[in-house]
Amino acid sequence: MNLNEQLLDEAKKVSKKAYCPYSKFPVGAAVLFESGKIYTGCNIENSSLGLSLCAERNGISTAIADGETSRLIKIAVYSPKTKNCFPCGACRQWIQEFAKGYNTEIILENEDGKYYSLYINDILPYSFELNMI
Ligand code: THU
Q1: pLDDT of residue 131
Q2: 41, 53, 69, 72: least buried by Cβ within 10 Å?
Q3: What are phi and psi of 118, to 5 degrees?
Q4: pLDDT, mean over the chain
Q5: In whole angstroms, what is the distance from residue 121 CA to residue 103 CA?
Q6: Cα gap 25→42, rounded to integer Å
Q7: Ligand 1 centroid, distance to 92 Cα (angstroms)
Q8: Lining residues, ligand 1, CB within 6 Å
């Protein structure tokens, strides 16, 4: 199993822990930082539906709370309910934040059960940056 397959495997495992009684759409994410550490997260929903937390942001939050300060290099995203589980717009902006200029790889599973990669600069062009003049 190569590194990308391993990350997808971790994303699959953590998707089983999702708390998603409202959408019944579990998602798991596995995040690799330049430090070499891998963190995982699942989606967590709430009866106040807009407060739901995505798997990607949960995984990144876990990394930051652990003291991670290196760049976000790869993130695998998986849901048993769909193939090609693209990160939502908010999660793309979060990935961009912790990429710190690196073109982070996003690893997804296609219809054939094979992994493939997208890159944050391609799926979030012209992203917001807090540049003050
Ligand atoms: N979800 C994620 O976990 N990641 C995404 O990038 C998109 C959506 C979750 C949020 C919600 O719990 C469920 O999927 C259905 O939208």
Answers
A1: 87
A2: 69
A3: -120, 165
A4: 97
A5: 6
A6: 11
A7: 12
A8: 20, 23, 25, 27, 43, 45, 52, 54-56, 87-88, 91
